[in-house]
Structures are given as structure tokens and as C-alpha cells.
Design brief:
There is one protein chain. The chain is an alpha/beta fold and 393 residues long. The protein has 2 domains: 117 residues, Aspartate Aminotransferase, domain 1; 244 residues, Aspartate Aminotransferase, domain 2 (3-Layer(aba) Sandwich). It is 37% helix and 18% strand. The protein contains 12 helices and 15 strands. The strands form 3 sheets. The chain has a 7-stranded mixed beta sheet with strand order 4-10-9-8-7-5-6, sandwiched between helices. The chain has a 4-stranded mixed beta sheet with strand order 1-2-3-13.
Length: 393
Amino acid sequence: MPTYARLPLIPERGQGSWLWDREGNSYLDAITGIGVCALGHAHPRITEALHHQAQRLIHTSNLYRIDRQEHLADRLVALSDMENVFFGNSGAEANEAALKIARLYGHQRGIDTPVVVVMENSFHGRTLATLSATGNPKVRQGFEPLVSGFLRLPFDDLTALEEAAEAHPDIVAVLVEPIQGEGGIRVPAPDYLPRLRALCDQHQWLLILDEIQTGMGKTGRWFACQHHAIRPDLLTVAKALGNGIPIGACLAAGPAARVFQTGQHGSTFGGNPLACHVAATVIDVIEQERLLARAEQLGRQLREALRQALDDSGMVKQVRGQGLMIGVELQRACGELTTIAARHGLLINVTAGNVIRLLPPLNLSDEEARILVERLTAAVTEFARNASPVTTR
């Protein structure tokens, strides 16, 4: 079905931060499958884990205990300071689990029509519930009637949320990305998440953090909320958790960890031995190669290098981000930059219309970082040279 606006290149193989197409052209991959291949392509430890587990056991279903699943759950709980985990196959499924928990939590408190606060410009998935929660109108358009029970407010605006608390007594939870990814790598004020945590505590709301894009080391911590020393009630993770093998997880703590009971949720494939063994290996590699510190350090260097290199382009409004989650906002829409950059041997993504999104692997080398800056600068320069002047009123 024609649901994707694809570039014409066909990747054939990958190694580390690089992809090669069928014609033998090489590309530095600075989007890594939209933040999925955080350890790059064909990492030997991941390949070994796949081979090892596939020889033993791939799938049994959740009719039985799965030791690989229990091991991964223990690892994730230890890393996040949460209490328990539900495993699915994607970020959207993880968010669906969180939303179901929020509704059950509300009903258990005697609220007949529980409301979840969501944010403008957010993205939470493409299932009916998660696209209803998503802030981008283009994602929702044409799929009405949408799932009800969502209240949309501006991101990084606690005053609006405080006002909503007075007007909407049926609020039971707040769903937010610590950094908006699809929304343009939008980083909130440093006190936003701590104050949001306090506000949720005040009103007995669940704080749900969608860390599908920010999680697993992308910002320099296992989870972005750890920069602020807060613990959510629900935390969702996927993408980089499996480095390309589909897996998603909804982590819970406090009252939220005791909401689901037997039979209230499930997944045929979720948490199968293959996916869980690979995900545990991803955690091992990030720990053993000390990639959290690497992401934080290299992210600072990359953002500064990009600011300096693009300063003369006349096109850049802002370079922002945290760790290796980087956005370069331009003065105008720049969707064609994905094609231009590919001609320069660089794979990027444009989101929110005018923001270059960079999600390079955590183990990007210093030389590869230099090449990234060089090629992106060349692409933006070409784009600026061919673009019509920006007019202002």
C-alpha cells in the first residue's frame, strides 16, 4: 500500500554507522531506522545473540513462563527504578498498554469517563488510541471518529495544565514525551518534568512518560527522566530496545503497577525469547561499551560543531537537543533535504516540516561525527543556494 514517501535508494547491507545500497554507494546513517539501531548495523554481539537464541527457541507464547522475558524485565526494572513490565512488539503497543492502565486506574477511583491529558505536537503511535492521543492533526485526519477521553494542551506549559485541573475533574493521567521527537526535537524547560511530577502528585494523576524515542541511552541516560531524578508512574520504551528486533515495553511503578490483573491485557508475540534475549544483549553492550557517557559527550560536541559549521548558511534558526537526539531547525520547510543529503552520502530525516532530525548511533566515532557535520553542511548549503529567499512581514 502506498503509505510511505520513500527515497528511491535500496539499502542492501550495513556495518556500524554505514549503509550500502545495491549500487555499492555508501551512506553515513544519521537516522538509524528512526532511532532504532542505536548500536549501528550488524553489531557482532547482536548478530551472535540472534543466532544463539534462534537455534534454541524463538517463540512459545505467554501461556508459559519465559525465562528470557523475566530476565529482561529484571534488567529494565533495575535500570529505571520501576516495578514491573508488560512486553509488546512496538512503541504504539507500549503506549496502548499505558493508556489502558490509566483508564482502569480512573475507573478504580470511581471516575466514569477518565481523561488523559496529551500535548500539542506530540506523537504516540498510529493505532486508533495512540493517533487520537497524538498532537499532529495530519496523523489524525480522516480517521474519525477518534477515541475520546483526551484533553490536548500546549507542551511545556504548566500554567495551562494547572488551569485544566480546575476545569476538568475527570483527569486521571498526563501523557508526555520528555523531548518531543516527531514534533521537532523540542526540549522543554529544565524544571518542566519535575514540576509536572509534583502537579501529578498533587492531583493523584498518573504521569506517563513516552520514552520510545528518548529511551535506551539516546539522551545520555538510560531514560531522559533520569536527567531530572524523577520517577514516572508509567514509562514506555521501544525503538532502540531491540536494535531492530521489534519489541516494546510498558514499565509501571506505584499504584499503576498494581492495576492490570490476569486477563485484562495480552500479546501473542510480546516478550518472546528471541526479542528479549536481543534486548538484554543491547543493555549489555551499552553498559560494557560505556555508551551513555559517550552519547552525552558526543552530543554536546556535535551540536556545537553543527552550530559553527552552519552559522553562515543563513538558513538555521536553532540547533538543539540532548545527547545524540539532535534537531536543526531551519528558516523554512526543508523536506527535500532528505534527498539532497542522500546525494551527499548522508541519511537524515526531516520532521515538523523544517527540522532536520539526527539520531545517530551511540557508538558513532569521532571521525564519523566529523563526516556527519561535513556532509550535512554541504547538503544545507546546496539547499540554501537553490531555495528562494525567505520573506518576512
